[in-house]
Amino acid sequence: MSAINYKQIDAELAHIATVLKAPRIRSTYHDTAEQARDGGWTYEEYLAAVLSVEASARQASGAQARIKRAGFPHIKTIEDFDFMVQPAIDRAKIARLETSAWIAQGCNVIFLGPPGTGKTHLAIGLGVIAARHGHRVLFDTAAGWVQQLTHAHSTGSLPKLLAKLGRYDLIIVDEVGYIPIEAEAANLFFQLVSTRYEKASLIMTSNLPFSRWGECFGDATIAAAMIDRIVHHAEIFTHKGNSFRITGHEDILPSIAAEREHQIN
């Protein structure tokens, strides 16, 4: 029986790993082979060990790419959210959403409440988890989405944009209600919601209760139709309390309230 030419085998495996664009296989197969020989592994066990390193690395790399493409303004995690400060949010319900199973079912998640109470934090946190689970995610504010839709409409490319967005498993719409949306733009936004109904998921955050969405969208009928589709298959969370960003500066709250009253009047 001829001696095993390990140098030739190493060269062949290195070449194969390069062709397959699998650098982790190239860097780990030799050491793993030593472990396999010492441990008496089967061929199948060795193959699984080598491939799992590459698969895990690719999965992690893909997740990072999806997170980057999502357009998050910053990265927030569920682990970093202080549920003690926001007891109105049921931690167990958030934990169930962390499986991302709801996305496969085309369901939605809505966070309502005052500014600065963690709505965007949780929305991003769930979006990051979804990206890590292999889902395509896109984030923007309501104003940003309206701008995209309006531009597409004006250039005759709205159907193309809606088709493109339909290929994303999860779209996050942040800050609904902060800036009024004109009737024509509201109709475009309704089309975005309607095309995703029972097909793909939304996460939305708003400082307004649903009863006031008609004020934001300038059309009570469109707002009602939109809400009807959004909440049909949705988990809704209502945040309470003052802004986290104001904590420790409660002395300025009276002046903020007075300013809001002045703006209303």
TrEMBL record:
Instruction: Give UniProt keywords alphabetically.
Output: ATP-binding, Nucleotide-binding
Gene Ontology molecular function: ATP binding
GO biological process: any one? DNA replication
SMART domains the UniProt entry points to:
AAA
Give the domain of life: Bacteria
Task: Kindly give the CDD domains that the UniProt entry links to this protein.
Answer: AAA
Per the record, the similarity remark reads:
Belongs to the IS21/IS1162 putative ATP-binding protein family.
Q: What is this protein called?
A: DNA replication protein
Q: From which organism does this entry originate?
A: Corynebacterium vitaeruminis DSM 20294
